[in-house]
Amino acid sequence: MGNEQTRGRRDADLTGQLGTTLRHFMHLESTSAGLLVIASLLALAWANSPWSHGYEHLWETVLSIRLGDIGLSMSLHHWVNDGLMVIFFFVVGLEVRRELAVGELTDRSRMVVPLIAGAGGLILPALIYLLLNPSGEAARGWGIVIGTDTAFLLGMLALVGPAVSTQLRIFLLTLTVIDDIVAVSVIGVAYTDHLSIGPLVVAALALAGIFALDKAKVWRAWPYVLLVLVAWVATLGAGLHASIAGMLAGLLVPAAEPTRAQMEVATSRFRAFRQSPLPTLQRETRDELTRTISVNERLQETLHVPTSYLIVPVFALANAGVDLRDGVLGEALRSPVTWGVIAGLVLGKTLGIGFGALAATRLGLGRLPQGVGGGHVLGGAALSGIGFTVALLIITLAFDSETLQRDAIVGVLLAVVIASALGWLIFQLSARFLGQRDAALPKLLSPPVDPSRDHIYGDASAEVTLVEYLDYECPFCARATGTANEVRDYFGPRIRYVVRHLPLPQHPHAELAAVAAEAAGRQGRFWEMHKHLFAHQNELEHQDLAGYAAVLGLDVEQFLRDLEDPVLAEHVREDMASADASGARGTPTFFVGAHRHEGRYDARTLIAALERSATGETARLGVRSRR
């Protein structure tokens, strides 16, 4: 029972610390790891059973798709590796583009340490492998050890890592982004022998077409999908491995946050449909709602589940089946290829990533994510030695010899076991001797609400407290402010609502707007200015703010002087430091009482969370009174 409660708390802690898309991605990848293990064990059992010939016969079966004289004909094994895996790498490309555009990698400073660590985790494994296999066909296998299987990595992290590992996951995801790009580039360049220029030009034109669709703001998904299919077929015809087409296409599909204008149009359409539910309005409403979500995220939402739950496990089933009978395992364990793969993945990844991250931080080139220690990084580096998916794919490209393929696959499978055990050991030692247990953002409000400095709407001694970190240029804060109004209306005098500032770097006027609210607060009109700023989010220039002060009846000259007052600017910076200390990384971020709210922030969810906090507080007071 205790273990179930701990697991439940772990799951609850993992949700809400990241954006919804990233949380969903992590859940899918962690579950996919379990399916990978099952598929791999099934493949091994099948390949070593009396029915092993059926395993080989299945994947050698030829499947043809033809339209007149045009068509493709490949074995099922090649359809999996050259067809289904294109979708896998396309999804990887989509994820990278989204993280660069609107996700964790928009802050380029966060990329420095993972970039250096990732470089170490690419170079050192390849050097170790080549040290053991310096010549001949075996030397072609150096690319096997450079990739990391993100699904397996996150799955094992959930099993053997810290109880709460959200920040470490962000670091490792950033690192695997770099890893994936390099690995696919290696597949496309180092393991391509012959190129056909005509199909290559067609593939390039298809990719250019995707870029053009982005620039033309095309919001429907089907034109992008059509061009991806053209790029895939052309890449196959050119002699390149199609994974490179998948990755490049994904990187070109646009990702963007919904704009306030888009949400307002969608809302107005929905209201019109609600008043007059006609088929034409239904179609227009659906289209406007679809426009608000980028093509990138819609394709990810569509493809993530089949990729994680079907494509990757099927790939494992098709590639992990190695017949180890008749002394084959013993021969593999005497092969330098096997040990080159094991040493490259386990030793190379652990030392390359670990020392790369340590060197970057010691040289002051960057810093680790908040809550992540050196032990966490080293444990995550060890788990990065799980190369599986990319490694198995490169094996089929690097070696023509079935013996070398077999030895390399054995090395990859053993590396999964050894890397997982090593990661577990490092995490255990880090927790025991370094006190590095959780690798997560803080969850408590710091400092607590202070009526002498914080802006409080309602009675300062009210029963429940809702704190919001906000940004006056953030369209989601404008929507959340409406949510906060609903919450205040529900609780009435039972609630106090507190605002703190968190102007984001991508919003150039947000910090000045925050100072303007504070300047209005000096004249007793903070909440009036607060409401006015959200009503005019697209008009926050200096002269606009002066006009709002006049509309609100403020002393405009005093207001303008206060806009330049360093004391008010320092007040905003103190709120920003408070957000960092409290684990608030984006806006809006809510705190229910002293605890950071995680997950959805619609009115119903916040009301339920506040009611639970009120009930819990009442119960605690009851216990104290009985004592």
From TrEMBL:
Question: Which reactions does this protein catalyse?
Answer: Na(+)(in) + 2 H(+)(out) = Na(+)(out) + 2 H(+)(in)
For whether the record's keyword set contains Cell membrane, the answer is yes
Q: What processes does the entry annotate via GO biological process terms? A: regulation of pH
The keyword Transmembrane is annotated on this UniProt entry? yes
Q: Which InterPro entries match?
A: Na/H_antiporter_dom_sf, NhaA, Thioredoxin-like_fold, Thioredoxin-like_sf, Thioredoxin_domain
* Highest taxon listed in the record's lineage: Bacteria
Residue ranges the record marks as coiled coil: none
Give the record's GO CC terms: plasma membrane
The places in or outside the cell where this protein is found are: Cell inner membrane; Cell membrane
The UniProt transmembrane annotation reads: 33-51, 71-92, 112-132, 144-164, 171-191, 197-213, 225-253, 339-365, 377-396, 408-427
Q: What is its main location?
A: membrane
Ranges of residues in domain Thioredoxin: 435-615
> One Pfam annotation, family name?
Na_H_antiport_1
Keyword terms, alphabetized? Antiport, Cell membrane, Ion transport, Membrane, Sodium, Sodium transport, Transmembrane, Transmembrane helix, Transport
What is its membrane topology?
Multi-pass membrane protein
Provide a Gene Ontology MF annotation, just one: sodium:proton antiporter activity
Against PANTHER family, the record matches this protein to: NA(+)_H(+) ANTIPORTER NHAA, SODIUM ION/PROTON ANTIPORTER NHAA-RELATED
Family membership noted in the UniProt record: Belongs to the NhaA Na(+)/H(+) (TC 2.A.33) antiporter family. In the N-terminal section; belongs to the NhaA Na(+)/H(+) (TC 2.A.33) antiporter family.
Function statement: Na(+)/H(+) antiporter that extrudes sodium in exchange for external protons.
Q: What is this protein called?
A: Na(+)/H(+) antiporter NhaA
Q: What is the lineage of its organism?
A: Bacteria, Bacillati, Actinomycetota, Actinomycetes, Propionibacteriales
